[in-house]
């Protein structure tokens, strides 16, 4: 089971942390990906961590977003900084093929 939390509204330049809680637990060598979908647009990849540990960020996320994990609480995070209005979207976590329910991020002045 994958349950998301976090998100909300923030001003441009602000930060948010999205959470993706996994049950029963995170196994080693997991794969996780964060996607987002803005109104009227297709879902797009934000960043993904592969089973070999390599993390790839899309150009718009480089230097601003980071995938983090806390295995002790079975949670994976998407830390987002320097947020822009164009980051407004519904964000989704995909853990080993299982989707979270999505969480809304709104960036506006």
Explain how this protein is built.
This protein is mainly β. The protein contains no helices and eleven strands. The chain has strands at 2-6, 8-10, 16-22, 32-37, 44-49, 55-57, 65-70, 75-80, 89-95, 98-99, 103-107. The strands form two sheets. Strands 2, 4, 5, 6, 9, 10 and 11 form a seven-stranded mixed sheet that branches. Strands 1-3-8-7 form a four-stranded antiparallel sheet, with no helix packed on it. The radius of gyration is 13 Å and the shape is globular. The chain starts with a strand and ends with a strand. The relative contact order is 0.33. The mean pLDDT is 94.
Largest sheet: 7 strands, mixed
Q: Using DSSP, what is the number of strands?
A: 11
In DSSP terms, counting alpha (H) and pi (I) runs of 4 or more, how many helices?
A: 0
| Computed Rg | 13 Å
Pairing-aware structural class of the strands and helices?
Answer: mainly beta
Unreliable segments of 5+ consecutive residues? none
Average pLDDT level = 94
Sum up the overall morphology in one term: globular
The H-and-E topology, N to C, reads as: EEEEEEEEEEE
Report the end-to-end length measured between terminal Cα atoms.
35 Å
Task: Work out the strand percent.
Answer: over 45%
**Oligomer designation:** single chain
DSSP helix fraction: under 10%
């Amino acid at each position: 089971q994958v349950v998301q939390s976090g998100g909300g509204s923030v001003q441009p330049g602000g930060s948010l942390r999205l959470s993706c809680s996994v049950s029963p637990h995170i196994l080693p060598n997991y794969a996780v990906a964060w996607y987002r979908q803005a109104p009227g647009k297709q879902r797009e990849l934000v960043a993904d961590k592969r089973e070999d540990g390599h993390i790839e960020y899309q150009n718009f996320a480089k230097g601003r977003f980071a995938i983090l994990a806390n295995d002790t609480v079975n949670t994976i995070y998407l830390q987002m900084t320097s947020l822009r209005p164009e980051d407004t979207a519904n964000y989704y976590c995909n853990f080993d093929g299982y989707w979270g329910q999505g969480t809304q991020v709104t960036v506006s002045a």
